[in-house]
Every structure is written in C-alpha cells, then in structure tokens.
Known about the structure:
Structural class: mainly alpha
Radius of gyration: 41 Å
Order of helices and strands: H
Number of strands: 0
Amino acid sequence: MFLPKYPDSPTPPSVHTHTPADPAPVRRPVPQISISTGTVATVLVGGVVLTALLAAVAVTAISVAIAAVVLRSMLRDQHRR
C-alpha cells in the first residue's frame, strides 16, 4: 500500500549549472614593499632620540616644580619673620 513508485526507465541526473549573479572581483597582486636596513635603523634611532628628549623635558619640568616649591617655602618663612 505505501510502496514508492519508481519510474520505468532510469533518467540521468540533471546537471545543475550555477552562474553567479555578479562576477568575482579581479584580484590584483599586492606590490612588494622592500624596507632597507638603513630605514629601520633610522626609525629606531629617531624613536630613541625622541624618547630621550621627552624624558629630559619631563625631568626638567619636575626639577623646576620642586625648585619652585622650595623657593616658595623659603620666601614664605622669611615673610613671617
């Protein structure tokens, strides 16, 4: 009663052809970037120099602030007398 019905002659499976809606983008080769050793050394030396300058400015600012506090304290004591 619930047996499947098969076709009398076998038919070959249909071939599905898929055509994309939009074509794939064209891939361009990435240009090779060659960085010389001199360039790397220059960047590293520049970074070290800038870091040293920043540290020098910070140390100078701190020492000036400390000197200002000490001088203010000394002048305040002298005005009280």
